[in-house]
Structure formats: C-alpha cells, structure tokens
Amino acid sequence: MSDSGELLRTTGDLTPLVPRRIGTTDIYVHPVALGGATFGWTLSAGETNDILDRFVALGGNLIDTADSYASGVSEQVIGSWMRHRSNRADVVVATKVGRSTEFSGLSSVNIRQAVDASLARLQTDYIDVLYFHEPDPTIPLIESLAAAEVLITAGKVRTLGVSNFSPQQLLEARVASANGLPHIEAVATTYSLLHRDIGAEYRPVLEAQGVSLMPYFVLAHGYLGRHRSIKSADPSDIRLSRAAEEASRHGAHVLARLDDVAAETGVSVAALSLAWVLHQPSVTAAAVGVDSVADIDELMAAANVSLSVLHWTRLSDI
Known about the structure:
Elements (H helix, E strand, L loop, with lengths): L12 E2 L5 E2 L6 E2 L2 E4 L9 H13 L4 E3 L8 H13 L6 E6 L10 H15 L4 E6 L8 H13 L3 E7 L3 H12 L5 E7 L8 H11 L2 E5 L21 H7 L4 H17 L3 H10 L7 E3 L4 H8 L6 E2 H8 L2
Parallel strand pairs: 4-5, 4-11, 5-6, 6-7, 7-8, 8-9, 9-10
Antiparallel strand pairs: 1-12, 2-3
C-alpha cells in the first residue's frame, strides 16, 4: 500500500497519523472522513454547517456523501456550505452513484446523468472521488468503467472508487484497467472491531493493486459509542435498531475490553474504536457519522491517539 503505511510497531507507541494518499492519486486526506448520511435527514442545514465548520477547523478535509443520502439533500447542504465558505479547493468531496431512486444502477447513461445531478447539487464542476455505490449485476462492469473514463476525461471526476465490491469484482476491474479503463483507487466497505472479516482474501488484492481501503460503520452503528445501551431501542429508529443488532455476547465482550483500555488511557471508547481501524493495513481514511459538534471533537482526536503496544495488542486480540 502507498502512503497509508502500516503504523503498528513492534516496540514503542502507536504514533499519531498524518495525511494519507488515496491509492496512487495525488489526493491526500486526513484519516478521519466525515460521513454525510445524516445531513438533511436527522440534521438540519444549520447543524450540518456547524459540524462541517468544526471538522475543517480541526484539519479534516474528506467529506463522504452519496446522491441517495436524504434523497440528494445531503449533497445540496454540502454544496451550499462550500459556496458560502468559498472553500471548494480546500476539501475533498467523495460521492456515490447507483443507488438513488432517479438513477438506479450503473448503466453508462445513469452514471453520467447521476454525476451531472450531483455536480448541480454540490454546486461544483468536479467530484474528487466518485464511488459506484454497489455492484450492478445487470450491467457489465466494463460499461460502467467506460462511463467513468468519459467523466474523468471531461474533468468532472478526479478518481474512481467502489463500495461493497467483492475481491473478485476488484480483480475484474483490474483487468479492465490494464486495458486502458480507469483504475479503481478506493474501496469502501464496512469494517470495525466487531466486524473484521475483510479477511485474508480481500487485503492482498488491495495491497497488490495499490488501492485504499475506506471503511464505514467503524463504530458499528454507534454501538461502539453512544448507542451501547439500546435494549429498548425504538424499532422505528433505523440507526438505533441497527445498533441493537450488535448487542451480542461478542459485542459485550468487545465493549468490556474497550472500557478497560479507555479507563487506562483516558481515551473514549468511540475514539479507541476509530483509532484501531485507522491503524489497520491498507486503511487510508474511515468515514464517521456524527450528530453534533461534540462528536466531531471526540472522533477527530482518534487520529492523534498514541497507544502502547500492550494496549494495542489487547484491542487486537479481542
């Protein structure tokens, strides 16, 4: 892997993190990315603006959204914020296409039209990282990659990523890129202390291709943070219901170990959970969703967590 580095040492402390390169591109990002799924959904425009302001004030620059988040409102809020702050050149915008109601799937037509719609909502003329939100079994991958090539050539997209693609699909994309189509530079997938099953099959593919791993759900829907006590979760609350699904015996064991390390280090459970993900091989940046400015302060601190090898081993051996 490129500048992501493998930061676990055999002696000494786990060191603070520095900006990292996405794949083989010239795009460098803070390792904590801000997820935009709640923008325009559970968070108002004003609340989102405050969070975005605090995020960049603390050194963050990668904002992760999708055309399907809040039916496009997430992109609209981000676009309005960038316009009013005149800071487009200072932030890295990643968005996803393929899962919206209007442009569902990865046909060449859908991709091109979805990107144009995203550009309009974001009030920008380029997207830094365009993700295919999920595989589309009805469309040949080569067609989707060719559509991305047109967008990259036109300057509408800087680089390409995929979300929830299997190692086999990444290998297929690699063959296509060897024949001149765009190289996938980033892969988004769920990854956390509770769910580490990217496994031996996945990581070698990423490392061999120089692809960045960009995890999401790193706090297991908040179970490794504020939503740990959710036995009576409201079933109508999607996020709390997802967190409740993590409340297994294994989940309780992971939380108990995190509590021990948190008590000994003075680092919050959420920040420890995020720091663990950020120091895994191939990980470039992890997207986190927040509900407040206070959440940003807590999670941005994860990039500066310094753990002894003993504490790191206790987390990794859960």
